[in-house]
Amino acid sequence: MDDWYQLAQPIIFGLIFAYLLAKLISILVAFKDENLSLTRNHETQSEDDDSSQHKLESSTTVIGGETDSLVAEQELDEAFSAATAFVAAAASDRLSQKVSNDLQLQLYGLYKIATEGPCTAPQPSALKMTARAKWNAWQKLGAMPPEEAMEKYINLVTQLYPTWADGGSKRGKRSGDAAGSNSRAAMGPVFSSLVYEEESENELKIDAIHGFAREGEVENLLKCIESGIPVNARDSEGRTPLHWAIDRGHLNVAKALVDKNADVNAKDNEGQTSLHYAVVCEREALAEFLVKQKADTTIKDEDGNSPLDLCESEWSWMREKEGFN
């Protein structure tokens, strides 16, 4: 019996030790898992916090960008309105600086783009000179963004009136109802009809008759003459429609003008007649036509040269006329 007791004692102690060791190991494993879980939860929470912070910063940036954009648009709109009000006030003051037709049309086109967008109106008749010019000024800007049109309008006004922004508001107030509380409304009539309407329309009609002679558009040219434009109207260089017809080689236009009593001996600013042009351009048929219409072959220009002097071609009919002039 004692032998069995002695044999069993170490076995029992071994089992107890093994149980305690296993228990200790399980406690350690459980503690490690719990620690790992806590660490993971902390990292996940940190990531969530970082993500929320990033989203908040992104949202703040977007809101800030949109706010800046809105502020910039509002400032541009206010500057454009101020510029249109100033121009309206300047237009009502006949003593102010006169703006050329070309610049008026540029302002008109930019204004229409800024306020109405791309041109969708039908093209006016060629006989409606002012309306056609304004339509062209608007239409040629295509699909320009309104903001760009506003900026260009402001820049153009600044070029014309460098100090307009300094005194624009005071002047706008003095103009009273002419400028009005709605500055854009004031701008509409001013450049829809152009500032110097009567003078502008006459100049445009004169430009048109020269353009028709230059391009060989006989029908439109005759309509201009029938509407009251002088057949011998001169451009800035003193050229008549006949000068242009000869210069471009349009015999049919030249004949139509002569039929309307065009002056074949009219001189440009350099003293040259249509016959000078025909000779220099070596347009024999046109030169012969003019001579038959009693164009003077001996008229001298500012340099002292006549068509005969300038003629290098062997045109016998030209020399024959020399004795009759």
Automatic annotation (TrEMBL):
The keyword Cell wall biogenesis/degradation does not apply. Residues 76-166 form the ACB domain. ANK repeats lie at residues 237-269, 270-302. GO terms for molecular function: fatty-acyl-CoA binding. Keywords: ANK repeat, Lipid-binding, Membrane, Repeat, Transmembrane, Transmembrane helix. The chain crosses the membrane at residues 12-31. Belongs to the ACBP family. This is ACB domain-containing protein. The lineage of its organism: Eukaryota, Viridiplantae, Streptophyta, Embryophyta, Tracheophyta.
